[in-house]
């Protein structure tokens, strides 16, 4: 495994690490206790552009990584899963960090962070879960029969060599990205051209359609309820209260555990959607920094 440094772009440096023959993009900024930021489905380290500088300036060494298949990381045609990404992040930690780390994620990245905190306590110091997904995909029992059938048909079309590329090209059009963002961001001002480009540009990479198709048919992975009993370290759970993708009603388990004295701090942010760290970065950065300041200095 090797690391290559590139030139500075924007507010942070883009670096590359080789994992199992695949190029993985990451960045690092600051000094102090390490954090790893893990994006959600279709996003990349750019989705943390409004968080990395502030958290690093607060006295932390902040890493952010593009999961295999996303951002500027390679997009090989293989079977994607949360377990694959968990292995990748653990190997990244072993090569670049090697001390107890706080894992911070949004959506699928939050579920992945929860998996790491639960399954690998030897490398963690806690986790920050932002609108945590319940799975990489819906489980059959979570959908009624008509919706389950419709999703199955759509998945088969997208995975079809004949029709998949055509449908993917329609899905990734910039106007469709904007419409999707308007569903999950409550503040229109947060839907900038920069954000649209962050999501659109990687979709033009070779292999992006195959990655999309693979993930649509991937197993959902463990449920949060399976993981939380294994968690030994503190969690900060942040939730945009108006998220239609991961509704705040799904956060009940975190609220219940917090109420009985588990080391889980739950905060709901009103009038906020699926990506509070990007829609309300000032508020989320302050919440994260305040919570980090309360963590024991050595875990």
Summarize the structure.
With 299 residues, the protein is α/β, with parallel strands linked by helices.
Structural account:
The chain has helices spanning 52-57, 82-96, 108-119, 145-159, 164-171, 174-184, 193-200, 208-216, 224-227, 252-259, 276-279, 281-294; strands at 3-9, 12-19, 22-29, 33-38, 60-65, 101-106, 124-130, 235-240, 264-269. The protein is globular, with a radius of gyration of 18 Å. The relative contact order is 0.14. The longest helix is centred in the N-terminal third of the chain and has 15 residues, at 82-96. Strands 1-2-3-5-4-6-7-8-9 form a 9-stranded mixed beta sheet, with helices on both faces. The protein has 12 helices and 9 strands. The chain is of the alpha/beta class and 299 residues long. The model is unreliable at 1-10 (pLDDT under 50). α2 packs across α3 (108-119) and α4 crosses α5. Helices cover 38% and strands 20% of the residues.
Give the helix level as a range of percent: 25-40%
The neighbouring-strand order within the major sheet is 1-2-3-5-4-6-7-8-9
The average pLDDT score comes to: 90
List low-confidence stretches: 1-10
Question: Top keywords for this entry?
Answer:
single chain, 299 residues, alpha/beta, nine-stranded mixed β-sheet, 38% helix, globular, disordered N terminus
List the helices and strands and how they pair.
Blueprint: E1 3-9, E2 12-19, E3 22-29, E4 33-38, H1 52-57, E5 60-65, H2 82-96, E6 101-106, H3 108-119, E7 124-130, H4 145-159, H5 164-171, H6 174-184, H7 193-200, H8 208-216, H9 224-227, E8 235-240, H10 252-259, E9 264-269, H11 276-279, H12 281-294
Parallel strand pairs: 4-5, 4-6, 6-7, 7-8, 8-9
Antiparallel strand pairs: 1-2, 2-3, 3-5
Helix pairs in contact: 2-3, 4-5
């Amino acid at each position: 495994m090797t690391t290559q440094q590139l030139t500075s772009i924007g507010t942070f440096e883009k670096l590359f690490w080789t994992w199992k023959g695949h190029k993985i993009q990451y960045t690092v900024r600051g000094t102090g206790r390490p954090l790893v930021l893990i994006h959600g489905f279709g996003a990349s380290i750019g989705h943390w552009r409004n968080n990395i500088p502030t958290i690093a300036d607060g006295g932390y060494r902040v890493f952010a990584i593009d999961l295999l298949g996303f951002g500027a990381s390679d997009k090989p045609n293989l079977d994607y899963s949360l377990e694959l990404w968990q292995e990748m992040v653990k190997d990244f930690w072993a090569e670049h960090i090697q001390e107890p780390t706080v894992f911070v994620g949004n959506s699928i990245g939050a579920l992945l962070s929860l998996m790491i905190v639960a399954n690998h306590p030897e490398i963690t110091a806690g986790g920050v879960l932002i609108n945590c997904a319940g799975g990489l995909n819906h489980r059959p029992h979570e959908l009624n029969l008509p919706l389950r059938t419709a999703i199955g048909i759509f998945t088969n079309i997208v995975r079809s060599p004949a029709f998949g590329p055509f449908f993917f090209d329609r899905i990734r059009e910039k106007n469709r990205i904007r419409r999707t963002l308007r569903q999950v961001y409550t503040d229109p001002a947060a839907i900038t051209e920069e954000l649209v480009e962050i999501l659109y540009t990687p979709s033009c990479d070779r292999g992006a359609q195959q990655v999309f198709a693979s993930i649509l048919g991937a197993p959902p992975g463990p449920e949060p309820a399976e993981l939380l009993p294994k968690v030994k370290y503190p969690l900060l759970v942040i939730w945009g209260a108006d998220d239609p993708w991961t509704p705040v009603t799904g956060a009940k388990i975190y609220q219940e555990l917090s109420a009985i004295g588990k080391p889980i701090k739950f905060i709901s942010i009103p009038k906020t959607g699926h990506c509070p760290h990007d829609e309300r970065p000032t508020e989320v950065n302050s919440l994260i920094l305040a919570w980090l300041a309360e963590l024991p200095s050595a875990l």
